[in-house]
């Protein structure tokens, strides 16, 4: 039995390239949409990297009446070539004390970024979902156990003061 | 097993079952040896996938096979299943198996529908479904979906539809259709098109679907669509089939191959016809209208999986 490596390479090639074009086209549409929506959603500022449409950053406002209020949080997006069939990888660049965000890496535990992803989501709506997650932490699936344990044990005050402290330290402009 | 037989003639660098291997002093077995072996396995797998095409589970669609492959599969299995396969083989000649990745219903529907258009060259049907697709697009827009989130998926399906009609520069053959449907990037985009259409239909008629969805998953219609319809790899249930059949106006027959036993009088195979009706009337299922509509798409359901069935009288060659 002869193994035809040329065929294997060709088929891999065919599988990758259309995705790349499709994801580029889709991201370009999102880019145009973001320019249009800037005024509509003042809580989110999504910016595409100057040289790479697969790299984005976002500044989101901490939701009001949460310990994150007043803070500005930076997110980093790495968009895979199979986007939008596969979700973007998103993490917090700004330190945040939240049960569903890894304290060291900024990794986010959110179903739509994993199994519940669908192309109906956009980078913009992912930002909205992350803001919603900030306001409604899921203490039962924690990436930050200290934060999750405070909430699960009912120590709302403890959680809020820790979260508030880190918001002040990391997400607010330094005074003076 | 099949794949091992196929490898028998090849030179294989490593052999996990080599008796000499087991006597190796494990202390001297270093990380890079493990890495090397790991790479060898990967390299072999990578070559095998496109090559052992028709037997490989990773292939999205297998070739059409005679129905007897089913009885071979269940040879040592339940006698009820074997009897049911016997009954099936009276009306059906062949099966085309699809990959079990949670998208099998949508993939089977896609292939079966496009193959039907390719063979029938039914332009009236293409016009009809194109009008329905336009309606589905309006539904999504009215539900608040941004055009750019779904338009690429719609465009790709419409392109396939156009290509299976002959007489254009872009027309494709049956072989091309098989090839294309096996191409992950095409196939996944069409699956996603169906998922958008299904989700839009369920949400548009949420009052009708709500009781079914409550029974299935105890979530809201909105939540169900977000978590069980729109994401790739989420399996399809009756709700999905009804919604897709209604939205596109395409009747679907599902034959059920399961262990449900029958009455004393012989074995029969249950089936269910999903018959769409025009306008806002709900899917009429197997009563009334179905006497006049004969589904041209027949799927075989085995618990958790859908494949395509080919009826005997259709005059296709096997």
TrEMBL record, chain A:
The active site is at 109 (glycyl thioester intermediate). One of its GO terms (molecular function) is ubiquitin conjugating enzyme activity. Transmembrane segments: none annotated. Its EC number is 2.3.2.23. Signal peptide: none annotated. SMART domains: UBCc (SM00212). It comes from the Eukaryota. Gene3D superfamilies: Ubiquitin Conjugating Enzyme. One of its GO terms (biological process) is protein ubiquitination. Pfam families: UQ_con. Keywords: ATP-binding, Nucleotide-binding, Peroxisome biogenesis, Transferase, Ubl conjugation pathway. Residues 22-172 form the UBC core domain. Belongs to the ubiquitin-conjugating enzyme family. PANTHER family: UBIQUITIN-CONJUGATING ENZYME E2. This is E2 ubiquitin-conjugating enzyme. It comes from Papaver somniferum (Opium poppy).
Automatic annotation (TrEMBL), chain B:
It is an enzyme of class 3 (hydrolase). Keywords: Hydrolase, Protease, Thiol protease, Ubl conjugation pathway. The keyword Hydrolase applies. GO terms for cellular component: nucleus. Transmembrane segments: none annotated. The active site is at 101, 104 (nucleophile), 305. It catalyses: Thiol-dependent hydrolysis of ester, thioester, amide, peptide and isopeptide bonds formed by the C-terminal Gly of ubiquitin (a 76-residue protein attached to proteins as an intracellular targeting signal). Residues 93-312 form the OTU domain. The record marks 242, 256, 258, 301, 306 as: Interacts with free ubiquitin. Its EC number is 3.4.19.12. One of its GO terms (biological process) is protein K48-linked deubiquitination. GO terms for molecular function: cysteine-type deubiquitinase activity; ubiquitin binding. It comes from the Eukaryota. InterPro entries: OTU_dom, Otubain, Papain-like_cys_pep_sf, Peptidase_C65_otubain, Peptidase_C65_otubain_sub1, Peptidase_C65_otubain_sub2. The keyword Cell division does not apply. PANTHER family: UBIQUITIN THIOESTERASE OTUBAIN-LIKE, UBIQUITIN THIOLESTERASE PROTEIN OTUB. Belongs to the peptidase C65 family. This is Ubiquitin thioesterase. It comes from Papaver somniferum.
């Amino acid at each position: 039995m002869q193994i035809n490596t040329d065929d294997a390479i060709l088929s891999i090639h065919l599988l990758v390239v259309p995705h790349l074009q499709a994801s580029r086209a889709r991201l370009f549409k999102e880019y145009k949409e973001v320019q249009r929506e800037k005024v509509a959603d003042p809580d989110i500022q999504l910016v595409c990297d100057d040289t790479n449409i697969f790299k984005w950053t976002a500044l989101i406002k901490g939701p009001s009446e949460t310990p994150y209020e007043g803070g500005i949080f930076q997110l980093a997006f790495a968009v895979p070539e199979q986007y939008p069939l596969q979700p973007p990888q998103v993490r917090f660049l700004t330190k945040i004390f939240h049960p569903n965000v890894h304290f060291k890496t900024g990794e986010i535990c959110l179903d739509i970024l994993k199994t519940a992803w669908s192309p109906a989501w956009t980078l913009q709506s992912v930002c909205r979902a992350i803001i919603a997650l900030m306001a409604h932490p899921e203490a039962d699936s924690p990436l930050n156990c200290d934060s999750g344990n405070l909430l699960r044990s009912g120590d709302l005050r403890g959680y809020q003061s820790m979260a508030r402290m880190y918001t002040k330290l990391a997400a607010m402009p330094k005074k003076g | 097993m099949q794949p091992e037989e196929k490898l028998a003639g090849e030179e294989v660098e490593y052999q996990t079952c080599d008796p000499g291997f087991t006597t190796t002093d494990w202390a001297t077995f270093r990380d890079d040896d493990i890495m090397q072996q790991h790479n060898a396995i990967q390299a072999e797998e990578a070559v095998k996938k496109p090559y052992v095409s028709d037997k490989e589970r990773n292939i999205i669609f297998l070739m059409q096979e005679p129905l007897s492959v089913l009885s071979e599969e269940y040879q040592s299995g339940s006698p009820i299943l074997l009897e049911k396969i016997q009954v099936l083989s009276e009306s059906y000649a062949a099966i085309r198996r699809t990959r079990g990745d949670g998208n099998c219903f949508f993939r089977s529907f896609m292939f079966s529908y496009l193959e039907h258009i390719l063979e029938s060259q039914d332009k009236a049907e293409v016009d009809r479904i194109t009008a329905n697709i336009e309606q589905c697009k309006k539904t999504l827009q009215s539900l608040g979906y941004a055009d750019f989130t779904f338009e690429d998926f719609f465009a790709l399906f419409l392109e396939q539809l156009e290509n299976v009609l002959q007489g254009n520069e872009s027309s494709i053959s049956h072989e091309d259709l098989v090839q294309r449907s096996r191409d992950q990037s095409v196939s996944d985009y069409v699956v996603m098109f169906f998922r958008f259409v299904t989700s839009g239909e369920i949400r548009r008629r949420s009052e009708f679907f709500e009781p079914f969805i409550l029974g299935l998953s105890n979530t809201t219609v909105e939540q169900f669509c977000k978590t069980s319809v729109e994401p790739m790899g989420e399996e399809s249930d009756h709700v999905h089939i009804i919604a897709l059949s209604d939205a596109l106006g395409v009747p679907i027959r599902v034959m059920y191959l399961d262990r449900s036993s029958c009455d004393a009088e012989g074995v029969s195979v249950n089936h269910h016809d999903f018959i769409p009706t025009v306008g806002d009337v709900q899917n009429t299922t197997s009563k009334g209208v179905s006497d006049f509509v004969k589904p041209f798409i027949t799927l075989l359901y085995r618990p958790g999986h859908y494949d395509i069935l080919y009826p005997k009288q259709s005059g296709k060659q096997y």
